[in-house]
Amino acid sequence: MRDNRWTWAALVLLAVVALLFFLNSRFPGVLADEDRKMRLIYGLTWLTLILGSVIVGWRGPAGLALKQALAWLAIALILVVTYSYREDFMDLGGTLAQRAMGELVPSQPVETAPGVVYLARDLSGHFAADALVNGTHVHFMVDTGATDVALTASDAERLGFDLSKLAYTVPYSTANGTIMAARVTLDEIDIAGIKVRNVKASVSRDGLGQSLLGMSFLNELRGFEFQGNRLVLRE
Known about the structure:
Peptidase_aspartic_dom_sf; EC 3.4.23.-; protease; TIGR02281 family clan AA aspartic protease; Cathepsin D, subunit A, domain 1
């Protein structure tokens, strides 16, 4: 019986690997984004370990163990894959799916009309935004108190900046004190089709835990306004 359980655990692992290859072929280039790749691998690794442990350690009938494992596998895979590939499902699912995802994942921008996008407030009370910066995914926290868009060192490196060649001469005040940052220019920031080009930004080597979407982006919009738990951006 236990040998059969090891077999089922191995089959679960193979199913997860097969799903990964299928998604990569269905959405080519998605796993080139390191952020999404790590989220997906992290989620699938934990999923495989948990389900494998349940199957191997199950004391009841093997058939019941298999049914329950498959049910939880299906639920968990839907959650992990939907979150990791949310941008691509938006392209396939249309407006209804986009709005539903916007409520489930507040950083997911939702287009309500051409040139109009809203962000939902997250559980911490802030507004976050998943954006494309020069074609690369960056997760921002919206900060109307920040003069410029501010990039963490890791996000700047993913965008191709050589941190050792930047001049950290500009002081910025943060909640943790004053930090020194380097001025850079971003070719384009795209939030659900709202695009701003030649955006002034800064890069900090330390002292910044989250990239900030500041006024150098927001001031280039036709307007933005807070409507309850939503932040509406207008191109």
